[in-house]
Amino acid sequence: MRFKTTELAKPRAAQWLRASLQLLLCLCAAGAAQAAPASNRLHAAWRAAITSTPLPAKGCFSAEYPATVWKQVACTQPPNRAYEPARGSGVGFGNDYAAEISGSISSAVGSFPAITGLTSEKSAGASNQYSLQMNVPYFSSPACKTSPYPPGCAAWQQFVFSQSAGKNATSSAFMVYWLINFGAYCPSGWTQEALNCFINSTAVAVPHQKLTAIAALQLSGAAAAGGNDTVKITTAKKAYAVSAPDSALDLAGSWTGTEFNITAMMGVVMIVGIATEMAIFFASEYQALERTLPAREALHNAALNRLRPILMSTLAMILALLPLGVAISGSGDQMLQPLAIATIAGIIVQLPLVLLAMPVVVGLTVRRKGSAPRTDTAPGS
Predict the structure, then answer these.
(1) Measured between alpha carbons, how far apart are the two ends of the chain, in Å?
(2) Beta-carbon neighbour count of residue 144 at 10 Å?
């Protein structure tokens, strides 16, 4: 009996200890789960508060959670490049979000609060190279008065967060002022882009931001008549802003709509689709030949039969992307040049993979069916 009593007491003690630990872990997990949403709500409230807090003066500023006071910092130079002007009255090359009102806008905020399936991206072999843009519609501006044909000129303004990659990577927020269809000669200090002219404001430096954390990024723009235009970028716990005189284009009073989009040159995604299509071409040809030929011979003939159409498709795509790859038009193509270069390089690389590696892979996985051709005729016929 003593033996049984001793042996029974230990499991009960162990069960009690295990249950206590499980309860303690559950309580800790529940507390952490409750703390996380509370922390997220505090950060969201802070981002809203700092975004609505005006800058004390013209220049560059930063703020850090939980403070809602802007501190002046040194400004920097923005990237020396154009951000593609609108084609017609719209902006962007894909699905964009735009807001319009009947009156005028004094400020706007854009963000991506819900992101699913984003794990990584690459542009010309580099990761985290992208820009966030808040673009206003075309509007009339006194700056067009010096155009050779003022009625055909329109102003356009962008609030931009731009991030490059590589050894000399930079990240900054700034504003871009455009004069669309201004003429062959731009005003002093402006950069010529075909018949368009642009000039960038000073920029505020921003630490490198991974694209996978884009849900925590928030871009805002504001315009004040007789005052300053401002662009702000907020991360999870920090905010950065830069302001410049509204008199550059006199946006205030003419701002009636806002488009918010993300531009990331992801040529690799295009290459996956192109390579998949080429592989389907080869696989369909092999399946047709495999009905009457041995597997090895069918693989060889499928590669030969599809060689010319695949080469023709590859050459056509390279020739179509070549002008964009060398930015031959000079009308803002620099923004899409990395996309074209990455796509051309990927097309060249995928060619031997489809024509050489694909037959090898299929040959290793196909079921051996003997050396004799397979026929579908009935026995005895």
Answers:
(1) 87
(2) 21
pTM over 0.85: no
Is the separation of the CB atoms in 69 and 63 below 8 Å?
yes
Say if residues 207 and 187 touch (Cβ distance below 8 Å): no
- CA-CA distances (angstroms) from residue 122 to 99, 163, 210, 343, 357? 30, 13, 12, 12, 24
- What Rg value do the Cα atoms of the chain yield, rounded? 30
pLDDT, one tens digit per residue, over 257-307 is 766 555 444 566 677 777 787 788 788 888 888 888 887 888 888 888 888
Question: Would you say 102 and 124 are in contact if contact means Cβ atoms under 8 Å apart?
Answer: no
Distance CA 169, CA 130 (A): 11
Find the Cα–Cα–Cα–Cα dihedral 181, 183, 189, 193, rounded to 10°: 60
Nearest one of 173, 169, 143 to 155, comparing CA atoms = 143
109: nearest Cα among 95, 91, 97: 97
Residue identified by tokens 């794990």 is 119
